[in-house]
């Protein structure tokens, strides 16, 4: 009997050692076909994001309103005279003059003035037109683009028509100085239109010269650069600010234990003074990620989130130039899953 | 997070290595595991030894019985084979010894001799059965207690796993799984020891009962023979 038991003991020991040896060597190990390959990957930490804005700042000012004279189709007429020697500008300016002046005067008195003019002492009368002709040539000099020939031609014709008109007027009322002065005035305006007025004329717009009087056109040409506002904080700076704040909050955040607590997000209302201290006590605006399983932990988590923010209270490394951005953090999101 | 596994432990999570699980375990769980392992070894030693001895006893007794009924002369048969070390031979030795002592007297008390023969042979059967079933109680004990011991190790290990969860503030599977696996390994060893023990216990009990009944039948037959001889004795 003893012999049988000894044999049994030896066999049993050997069998156990063999079995456990095989198990340890992976004899019954299930081959794991889903061995996940995790090749090493390069990770760049985003800690290098600067707090100072380096990106070009976009102006917050609206562009100045576009004014009508800029849009007129006649603007094209202006460059045209520049290269053209004579023919182009010459036909363009005369029509307005030729139309208004000859039309009213010759129609009213077609024939009699000529006789009168001839008969009348016309000597003093041709003088003014000559003066004007003399006047006219120097005026085109002001707008240098205008060729003299082009201006001289219309002015001469003007002078002739005016002389006619004056002759008529004189014939009608020789002693009437009034008529003379009228005619002179007319001649003057005509001369002005033909000479000095030419600079404005080509615009041809229906808008008057003083159309832009009330508008500050100074803002048109020199565009002011946008002031470096704190409000112009870019997304990078915002992210950096968020990171600076969360770096200081999450080490203090201790989660309550419970299922699905990591899904909770507390939205806090936090006011911070310029030294980074919290003003008053933060309040919880809202809780997100609440489920049936973590509902019992919600109130505890609210407290923990407030405690974490309070514990981090003198916030460091907050950019003072962006104080407007962090003086009132509402909502400041405290993610349970980021707790350490 | 990484567990500080001792050198040699297989860290592949897919491999259920008993050695790795054992080495990770708490000291209490380790003690439970070692105890259960020893119980398992002892159980198997008993199973192997017992099956040998029981089969040998049954076979020898059956053969002895068959030869006995074919024997012409009981005395001669006893002289030649009655000194063997198995139950039937012991039974016969007890009967023949009592017979010889009773018939050696001048006046034979027949009733008293029958009583003594009966008592001697039944006590011989009981002695043999007791001797054979000596180890069976160990199997019974291991079979009933080992699961509880393993469960104790599991409970302890899971308590420890929860403590580590609380300490780490982290309930991810990576923290919980190793502790629970090593804890459950204790129950696995407990069942590993208990299941063969229970099966062997039931089987050996049955074998012992069969041997006992066959011995009893043989003893009855032998008693009847001796009783008849006593009638003829004058």
From TrEMBL, chain A:
<feature type="compositionally biased region" description="Basic and acidic residues">
    <location>
        <begin position="157"/>
        <end position="191"/>
    </location>
</feature>
<feature type="region of interest" description="Disordered">
    <location>
        <begin position="54"/>
        <end position="235"/>
    </location>
</feature>
<feature type="transmembrane region" description="Helical">
    <location>
        <begin position="7"/>
        <end position="29"/>
    </location>
</feature>
<protein>
    <submittedName>
        <fullName>Cell envelope biogenesis protein TolA</fullName>
    </submittedName>
</protein>
<feature type="compositionally biased region" description="Pro residues">
    <location>
        <begin position="80"/>
        <end position="113"/>
    </location>
</feature>
<keyword id="KW-0812">Transmembrane</keyword>
<keyword id="KW-1133">Transmembrane helix</keyword>
<keyword id="KW-0472">Membrane</keyword>
TrEMBL record, chain B:
<keyword id="KW-0812">Transmembrane</keyword>
<keyword id="KW-1133">Transmembrane helix</keyword>
<comment type="similarity">
    <text>Belongs to the exbB/tolQ family.</text>
</comment>
<keyword id="KW-0472">Membrane</keyword>
<feature type="transmembrane region" description="Helical">
    <location>
        <begin position="27"/>
        <end position="54"/>
    </location>
</feature>
<keyword id="KW-0997">Cell inner membrane</keyword>
<dbReference type="InterPro" id="IPR050790">
    <property type="entry name" value="ExbB/TolQ_transport"/>
</dbReference>
<dbReference type="InterPro" id="IPR014164">
    <property type="entry name" value="TonB_ExbB_1"/>
</dbReference>
<feature type="transmembrane region" description="Helical">
    <location>
        <begin position="179"/>
        <end position="201"/>
    </location>
</feature>
<keyword id="KW-0813">Transport</keyword>
<dbReference type="Pfam" id="PF01618">
    <property type="entry name" value="MotA_ExbB"/>
</dbReference>
<keyword id="KW-0132">Cell division</keyword>
<keyword id="KW-1003">Cell membrane</keyword>
<keyword id="KW-0653">Protein transport</keyword>
<dbReference type="InterPro" id="IPR014163">
    <property type="entry name" value="Tol-Pal_TolQ"/>
</dbReference>
<dbReference type="InterPro" id="IPR002898">
    <property type="entry name" value="MotA_ExbB_proton_chnl"/>
</dbReference>
<feature type="domain" description="MotA/TolQ/ExbB proton channel">
    <location>
        <begin position="102"/>
        <end position="214"/>
    </location>
</feature>
<feature type="transmembrane region" description="Helical">
    <location>
        <begin position="138"/>
        <end position="159"/>
    </location>
</feature>
<protein>
    <submittedName>
        <fullName>Protein TolQ</fullName>
    </submittedName>
</protein>
<keyword id="KW-0131">Cell cycle</keyword>
């Amino acid at each position: 009997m003893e012999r049988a038991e000894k044999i049994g003991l030896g066999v049993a020991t050997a069998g156990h050692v063999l079995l456990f040896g095989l198990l340890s060597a992976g004899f019954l190990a299930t081959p794991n076909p889903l061995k996940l390959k995790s090749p090493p990957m390069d990770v760049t930490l985003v800690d290098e994001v600067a707090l100072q804005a380096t990106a070009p700042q976009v102006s917050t000012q609206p562009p100045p309103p576009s004014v009508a004279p800029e849009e007129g189709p006649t603007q094209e007429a202006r460059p045209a005279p520049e290269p053209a020697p004579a023919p182009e500008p010459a036909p363009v300016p005369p029509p307005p003059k030729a139309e208004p002046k000859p039309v009213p005067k010759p129609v009213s008195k077609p024939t009699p003035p000529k006789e009168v003019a001839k008969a009348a002492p016309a000597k003093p009368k041709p003088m003014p037109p000559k003066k004007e002709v003399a006047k006219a040539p120097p005026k085109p000099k002001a707008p240098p683009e205008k060729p003299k020939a082009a201006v001289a031609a219309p002015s001469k014709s003007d002078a002739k028509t005016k002389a006619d008109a004056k002759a008529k007027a004189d014939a009608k009322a020789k002693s009437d100085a009034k008529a003379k002065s009228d005619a002179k005035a007319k001649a003057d305006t005509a001369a002005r239109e033909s000479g000095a007025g030419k600079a404005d004329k080509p615009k041809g717009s229906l808008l008057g010269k003083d159309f832009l009087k009330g508008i500050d056109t100074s803002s048109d040409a020199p565009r002011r650069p946008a002031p470096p506002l704190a409000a112009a904080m870019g997304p990078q700076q915002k992210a950096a600010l968020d990171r600076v704040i969360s770096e200081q909050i999450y080490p203090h955040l201790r989660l309550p234990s419970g299922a699905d607590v990591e899904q909770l997000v507390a939205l806090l209302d936090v006011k911070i003074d310029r030294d980074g201290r919290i003003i008053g006590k933060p309040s919880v605006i809202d809780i997100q990620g609440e489920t049936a399983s973590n509902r019992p932990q919600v109130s505890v988590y609210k407290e923990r989130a407030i405690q974490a923010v309070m514990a981090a209270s003198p916030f460091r490394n907050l950019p003072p130039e962006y104080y407007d951005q962090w003086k009132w953090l509402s909502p400041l999101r405290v993610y349970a899953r980021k707790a350490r | 997070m990484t567990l500080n596994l001792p050198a040699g432990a297989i860290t592949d999570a897919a491999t259920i290595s008993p050695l790795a699980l054992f080495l990770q375990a708490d000291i209490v769980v380790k003690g439970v595991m070692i105890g259960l392992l020893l119980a398992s070894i002892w159980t198997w030693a008993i199973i192997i030894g017992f099956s040998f001895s029981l089969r040998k006893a049954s076979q020898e007794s059956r053969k002895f019985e068959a030869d006995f009924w074919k024997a012409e002369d009981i005395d001669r048969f006893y002289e030649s084979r009655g000194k063997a070390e198995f139950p039937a031979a012991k039974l016969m030795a007890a009967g023949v010894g009592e017979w010889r002592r009773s018939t050696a007297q001048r006046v034979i008390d027949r009733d008293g001799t029958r009583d003594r023969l009966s008592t001697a042979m039944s006590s011989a059967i009981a002695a043999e059965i007791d001797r054979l079933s000596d180890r069976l109680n160990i199997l019974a004990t291991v079979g009933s207690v080992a699961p509880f011991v393993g469960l104790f190790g599991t409970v302890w290990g899971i308590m420890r796993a929860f403590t580590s969860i609380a300490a780490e503030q982290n309930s991810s599977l990576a923290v919980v799984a190793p502790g629970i696996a090593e804890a459950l390994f204790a129950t696995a060893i407990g069942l590993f020891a208990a299941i063969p023990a229970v099966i062997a216990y039931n089987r050996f009990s049955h074998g012992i009962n069969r041997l006992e009944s066959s011995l009893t039948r043989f003893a009855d037959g032998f008693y009847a023979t001796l009783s008849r001889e006593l009638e003829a004795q004058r």
